[in-house]
Structures are given as structure tokens and as C-alpha cells.
Amino acid sequence: NIFLHIxxxxxxxxxxxAGFFFRLLLDNGQERELFSYPRAxxxxxxxxxxxxxxxxxxxxCLAATILLSAxxxxxxxxxxxxxxxxxxxxxxxxxxxxxxxxxTELEGELNTVRALAxxxxxxxxxxxxxxxxxxxxxxxxxxxKRMGLVTAEGMAFTTDDLxxxxxxxxxxxxxxxxxxxxQVLLVDRTD
Length: 191
Fold this sequence. Notes:
Layout: H1 2-26, H2 31-35, H3 48-123, H4 128-142, E1 148-150, E2 155-158, E3 163-165, H5 170-176
Antiparallel strand pairs: 1-2, 2-3
Helix pairs in contact: 1-3
């Protein structure tokens, strides 16, 4: 944005200067007063031929300046598009990398929950007074919001002492069929 602002300022300044010079060059009534000066070789002011040569030179200089300004602005616009495309590409790559990291973390957490469920099942720990203190250690370790135990009847008991029904939840129905599930978006009924 700063480059675009500088480019616009340069363009406006150039257009104002160019307009001033064109006005001076094309205004025949004032041209001799503004651009005439004593010449050492003639002892007087510029004659008509010298004035035409000077005017032609100034017009060529202005045309070259306009052309260079146009080239600069085209280059600037092209460079800006290139930078924006590169930034988008880098953001997309960073997003892909973060997605992979989050997916790996979630898979790790799901494996941890599976392992905990397996251990609790093998040890015969199904009572919430036995399971919730063990889950609370995991919550503190991983700085989770909460973990909970869901009974076969669909009652959920959490590590932050909440109790609610989950029989209508998809993850509950899947768990009854022996499937693990991971919800992308879950509406929290307790908050």
C-alpha cells in the first residue's frame, strides 16, 4: 500500500508539472517572457527557430518522462501482483502445515481416549467415582476444558461436576456400536 501511495503522489506531481509546462509551451502570448533569456552569442533574446528547438526539446523530455512513468507504474503493478500471489501461496502452505499438526494432535488425543477406555474396561473401572479422578489428571496435564464418562444409559458425568443426557448425540450412538468418533463442531449444552 505504501508503494501504491508513493506512486500516486509521484503521478499527481508529474501530471501537475507536465500540465504547467504544456500550458507554458502552448501559450504563445507568454512564451517569450517566461522562457526568453539573453544569449551570449546573439546579444539578445532567442529567435523563433531557437524557441522552436527549445520547445521541441522540452516536449521530448516530457514525453520521455511520461513514458518512464508509465513503465514504472506498470512495473510497480506487476511487482505488487507478484508479491500478493507469493503471500497467498505462503499463507496456503502455512495453513496446510497447521492443518496437518492439528490433525496429528487430534488423532493423538483420540488414541489416548481409546487407550484410557481400554484400560478402564480391562481393570473393570466403570464407576464414575473411580474414573473421574483419573480423567481429571489428564485434563490438568493437557489443559483441557473437561473430560467425561458416559454410561450405557446415555448419562454423561464430567470432570467439572456436570451431569447431562447424550442419548440423542451421534457420537453416543456410534460408541454403542463400538466406533470411535471425532466431532469437528459440537454444541456444548452446558455453557
